[in-house]
Amino acid sequence: MNKWFKSGTPWIWMTGGAVSLSLVAVLGLLLMIGWRGLTYFWPHTIYEWQLSTPEGERYTVIGEIHDREQVPVAQLRGAGLALEGVTKESLTRYLVKTGNREFVPLDFRWILETDIISRSEPADLAVIERSHNGNFYGYVERVLENGSSVAGDTHEQLISRIARVDELNERMETLQKGDIGSINHQLERLRLKQRGLELDGELTDDALADIRAREETLRADYRVLEKELFALREQARRDSVIVRDMRGQEVTISLGEVLDVAWPNNMSLLAQSGHWFTAIGKFVSSDPREANTEGGVFPAIFGTVFMVILMAIIVTPLGVVAAIYLHEYAGKNSLTRVIRIAVINLAGVPSIVYGVFGLGFFVYMLGGSLDRLFYPEALPSPTFGSPGVLWSALTLAILTLPVVIVSTEEGLSRIPTSVRQGSLALGATKAETLWRIIIPMASPAIMTGLILAIARAAGEVAPLMLVGVVKLAPNLPVDGNFPYLHLDRKFMHLGFHIYDVGFQSPNVEAARPLVYATSFLLVTVIVGLNLTAIGIRNHLREKFRSLDQ
């Protein structure tokens, strides 16, 4: 036994077991998050319950089961429920999403199994997704055009007219974010130009007349586009649908606010799968609604990826240059050792401290100075003196800088000294040796540092809350208006979106599945970014493999 322990075999098995357990735990966590998040988009069965109150009154509830749990009978009786004749130790209660938010106090309610008289799954029960007030559940009675009933199959008429409204909504969105947004941007630039001329004392009558003429031309174009936009809105409001809800009343819903309609109880497995993929596509590609509890997360995906790429562009040259100086040029003395210790210790500083530093130095000091020097006409409204994507990227670049420096130094230290001496002996300068031989050979290590930096930065939330991320950003940092790349704008982030939906949402039950869905999406984005960096690293490793021989 002693010989077996001394051979080191037990420690090998112990290490392998620990690694295996860690992998199983990580994969199990990811599977749980993925399952809870992706099942949210599956079309759930819509039930119609006949219920009774303790007083014997009967009423109807229509909705989908969101959750269920076992509740001890003693706990229910302690809460004041009589439950006469109940002999079970526990009862099942269902959390039902009823929607129809404008007609009921809450769009989620608990239903106890003792209150259920009957439960059915009518095939013609519809779920209508709306741009406001969440889903609406009920029976589609008829479709109206300009207030008159439309002949033909109700389901087909409704689907075709929703497709028509979707096309109109896309045209309106393109008009608002494209031509109208461009005119507003140009008007704002003219206002700032006039203010700048006033500050410089160069606002002559001719210059003012030119600005006024250009403003009038833009406003004339705006009125034409505004008229077109109103006409599109009027066309979108032409049709409506009458739905009978769980109260038994007919409700008229304008198709201008209807995004989709489905009859889940009447779907085949193939139709359910198609609806599931469509719902995921909408989640990834659309904007959020209803305080982030409805809609999609495209701005958050774009903001996360854009910020991480900008951070990588900033941190890579800084980290590589610092590592090259420390390893190739700095002397082997106590000062260099202190600098290395400081770099390593920076990796242990809490991320919120970096956020405070970014807010104080980048936003207030550097950004405020840029505003006073280059954008005085915009003051007191800040341009760069306000949290934005640039300051977020710089803050995270400093946060991840130690990782890149340490990884690059490790790569440089593995390159044999004979390679450097051979290059110098052949007549190359030290700079040429570094640029043509040392850096290419160390590029896989540089990419490893970048991979670790991306993994760290993509999931950070605390510093971003101080230097740029917001709950809802009306405009992306990239658009069609000059200079096209707006680094001063605030942005949305998947990590902050998870925090906001999970802890700041006014509708906790509706937000809970989105927490899992967004978490799974964040993990997917991080894995995608890392796989891209790993692919580049492997390509560089193969490309410069001959230099190692």
Question: Topology, pairings included?
Answer:
Elements: H1 2-6, H2 9-38, E1 47-52, E2 58-72, H3 73-78, E3 90-97, E4 108-112, E5 116-120, E6 125-130, E7 136-145, E8 148-149, H4 154-200, H5 205-236, E9 239-244, E10 250-254, E11 258-262, H6 269-285, E12 288-289, E13 294-295, H7 298-329, H8 334-346, H9 351-374, H10 389-413, H11 417-425, H12 430-458, H13 464-467, H14 494-503, H15 508-543, H16 545-548
Antiparallel strand pairs: 1-2, 1-5, 2-3, 3-4, 6-7, 6-11, 7-8, 7-9, 9-10, 12-13
Subcellular location: Cell inner membrane; Cell membrane
Organism: Oceanimonas smirnovii
Protein name: Phosphate transport system permease protein PstA
N to C succession of SSEs: HHEEHEEEEEEHHEEEHEEHHHHHHHHHH
* Terminus-to-terminus distance: 44 Å
Shape: globular
Characterize the largest beta sheet: strand count, sense, and whether it forms a barrel. 6 strands, antiparallel
Mean model confidence by pLDDT = 88
Q: Stretches where pLDDT falls below 50 for ≥5 residues?
A: none
Tell me the number of helical segments per DSSP (H or I, 4 or more residues long): 16
Describe this structure in words.
The chain has 549 residues and is an alpha+beta fold. The chain is 59% helix and 14% strand. It contains 16 helices and 13 strands. Strands 6, 7, 8, 9, 10 and 11 form a six-stranded antiparallel β-sheet that branches. A hairpin with a 5-residue loop joins strand 6 (125-130) and strand 7. The two termini are 44 Å apart.
